[in-house]
């Protein structure tokens, strides 16, 4: 007789999402004008690893979900500005 238990994959997208949600619920939004807990849609900058409310950085839940489905990463405005700087694009001599 077959065992009817179902094992869940600890690395599944759903489980990773739950872990991520638990990790940022007590974090504070990195946007200095906000300073509230992240208990809603939030994004982590892939460069500085700071958390931001989607609403604070103009990213809706739909956009965040679409980015996740496409495997796209998000960078905050500060990191984007720093790494888009012409100074950083010049080769070091």
TrEMBL record:
InterPro entries (UniProt xref): Znf_FYVE_PHD, Znf_PHD-finger, Znf_RING/FYVE/PHD
Q: Where do the PHD-type domain residues begin and end?
A: 34-79
Which Pfam family, giving just one, matches this sequence?
PHD
Q: Does the keyword Metal-binding apply?
A: yes
UniProt keyword Zinc, yes or no? yes
Q: Which SUPFAM superfamilies match?
A: FYVE/PHD zinc finger
Q: What is this protein called?
A: PHD-type domain-containing protein
Source organism per entry reads: Daphnia pulex (Water flea)
């Amino acid at each position: 007789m077959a065992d009817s238990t179902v094992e869940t994959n600890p690395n599944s997208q759903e489980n990773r999402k739950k872990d991520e949600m638990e990790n940022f619920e007590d974090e504070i939004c990195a946007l200095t004008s906000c300073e509230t807990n992240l208990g809603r849609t939030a994004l982590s900058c892939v460069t500085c690893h700071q958390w931001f409310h989607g609403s604070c950085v103009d990213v809706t839940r739909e956009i965040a979900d679409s980015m996740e489905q496409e495997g796209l990463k998000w960078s905050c405005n500060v990191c984007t500005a720093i790494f888009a700087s012409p100074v950083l694009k010049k080769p070091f001599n």
